[in-house]
Each structure stands twice: as C-alpha cells, then as structure tokens.
Amino acid sequence: MKLGLLERVGSEEDRLVSVNPSKTSLLLLTHHVFAPKGMRTVELKRIWADPFWKYLGFKNQDVVRAIYREADATGILGKYVVADQLEQITTRWSLDEFLQNKARV
User: Fold this and answer.
1) Considering the chain, what is the average pLDDT of its residues?
2) CA-CA distance, 30 to 52, in Å (whole number)?
3) Cα 19 from Cα 46, distance rounded (Å)
4) What local confidence, expressed as pLDDT, does residue 14 receive?
5) 104: Cβ–Cβ under 8 A, 6 or more apart, which residues?
6) How far apart are CA 40 and CA 89, in angstroms?
7) CB-CB contact of 103 with 24 (8 Å)
8) Helix (H) or strand (E) segment spanning residue 42
C-alpha cells in the first residue's frame, strides 16, 4: 500500500491499483541502462531482452515503441530507425545530460 499498488475501499479486501507508467521514466532508465556515459545506438531487441521496461508497468513492446517514436519526434532521442529487420534508437545525450536538460515526454 505504501508503494501505491494496493488500495482499500471501506472494509473490503485490498485491490490492485492500475499502474500508469511514466514515459519519462522509460526514457530515463533507457539512458541509465544503455547510455550512461554518452550517445549510443541500441537495437530494440537488446531493449526487449532487458526487462526494465516491464518492471515500470509497460505491458507490451508496441507501447514502448510508440513512446520512443514520440521522444524522437520531440527531439529527446537522437533518432528512431526501422530499416528492413533492423529497429534501433540512438540516444541524444548521456544520462547526466538527460538529467541536466530535464527532458520530459
């Protein structure tokens, strides 16, 4: 309950609250895991292999793809590329630069 994942209504049993993951948290952790020191190009298959995005509450890869596309359109990511069977993102900043710029989606 302290984490905000459960709620109690009256005298009923505890219920699981729907998790609303933050787009910014996804980008922050992407930079932390894959680009802590500088710009990096990362294939999405490497991102799918690391479960950090699931721990944030994202249920499927399509939602994560949409956030990366939105971040690319707003200039937070360097680029989002789909070419043939290759799908990748390139970060624009290192983790420290991401934090200094206070980037948000």
Assistant:
1) 89
2) 8
3) 24
4) 83
5) 24
6) 8
7) yes
8) strand 41-43
pLDDT in tens, 62-83: 999 999 999 999 999 999 999 8
User: At residue 30, what is the residue type?
Assistant: T
Q: Which residues make beta-bridge pairs with 77?
A: 91
* Phi, psi dihedrals of residue 19, rounded to the nearest 5°: -90, 130
Q: Which residue has the higher pLDDT, 95 or 4?
A: 95
Pick the more confident residue, 72 or 94. 72
Pairing of strands 6-7, 15-16: antiparallel
Cβ–Cβ contacts within 10 Å for residue 56, how many?
16
Domain ranges within the chain, ordered by starting residue: 20-100
Distance of alpha carbon 101 from alpha carbon 93, whole angstroms: 9
In one letter, which amino acid is 14?
D
Side-chain half-sphere CA neighbours of 79 within 13 A: 6
* Distance separating alpha carbons of residues 23 and 73, to the nearest angstrom: 14
- Within the chain, residue ranges assigned H as helices are 23-34, 44-49, 52-55, 61-74, 95-100
